[in-house]
Amino acid sequence: MAKLKVAELFYSIQGEGRYMGVPSVFLRTFGCNFKCEGFGMPKGQKSEEYLNVDPEKYQSYNFLPLVSTGCDSYASWDPRFKHLSPVLDTDSVADAIVDTLPYKGWKDEHLVITGGEPLLGWQRAYPDLLEHPKMKALKEITFETNGTQDLDVPFFDYLDRWGWGHPGNFDRQITFSVSPKLSVSGETWDDAIKPEIVARYGNVGYVYLKFVVATQEDADEAEKAVQAYRDAGFMGPVYLMPVGGVESVYHLNNRAVAELAMKKGYRYSDRLQVPLFKNEWGT
Ligand code: SF4
User: Fold this and answer.
1) Given the CA of residue 187, which atom of ligand 1 is nearest to it?
2) How distant is the alpha carbon of residue 11 from its chain centre?
3) pLDDT value at position 161?
């Protein structure tokens, strides 16, 4: 049976993007191909805030400190925290997912598979998980990805059977919420912007782009990236979302980012988990 290394599993309200406000189960897989140490830092500098968190002091994600710079889900990929993420077979993951639901069965909830980067090697496990009898009534699934990982052939074929591209034949809606990393993240354009890969997601699901921005310069860089994605055949909508995993930073730039979105003709995505839940782990 396929296995997943599970960083977090919790029930909350989706705070971002297309499903903002929808009750959702979040399955956060362990591992990422990036570090995004540039968020919230002066250009060219890297955050070391997460390196100051002593992994030995924590036995659960729920008590980990928040960071205001760098990646706000650092423990989902930093190997120092891997002891917090058990390897579970898909039976156990399906049981745990359904256990988080208020009625212990699916109503209108949506499943978010996030990370880390959820499209690393874990792709092998998702067909098993999504075919599990306890998951049959689940209709809407989002993969929150950085858009750098191609779909492997078995997983592509699996997703293809859900009928995207065959109108009227939707059994399940698959969404790719792609958050490409701009230079504000500290990652490089060549590593982070992979238009052909993202265009291929569009063959098996609904795809949108969501850029984390703080300034006009970031929004201009997002616009340049959008053109590269459009040139590769990407057709979906584009969101701008304010930088800020903690309230003080988020409140500094959310209105400015909303105004940038209006100016560019893009959608605005909030981060409802910040004002609602202070972006605590497990929310
Ligand atoms: S891609 Fe996402 S999870 Fe990975 S380091 Fe960047 S912000 Fe964190």
Assistant:
1) 6
2) 15
3) 85
- Pocket (CB within 6 angstroms of ligand 1): 32, 34-36, 71, 73, 77, 115-117, 146, 181
**Ligand 1 geometric centre to CA of 145 (Å):** 9
pLDDT of residue 168: 53
Name residues of the chain where pLDDT drops below 70: 165-170, 244-246, 248-249, 279, 281-283
Give 30 Cα–ligand 1 centroid separation in angstroms: 11
The whole-angstrom separation of Cα 61 and Cα 81 is 9
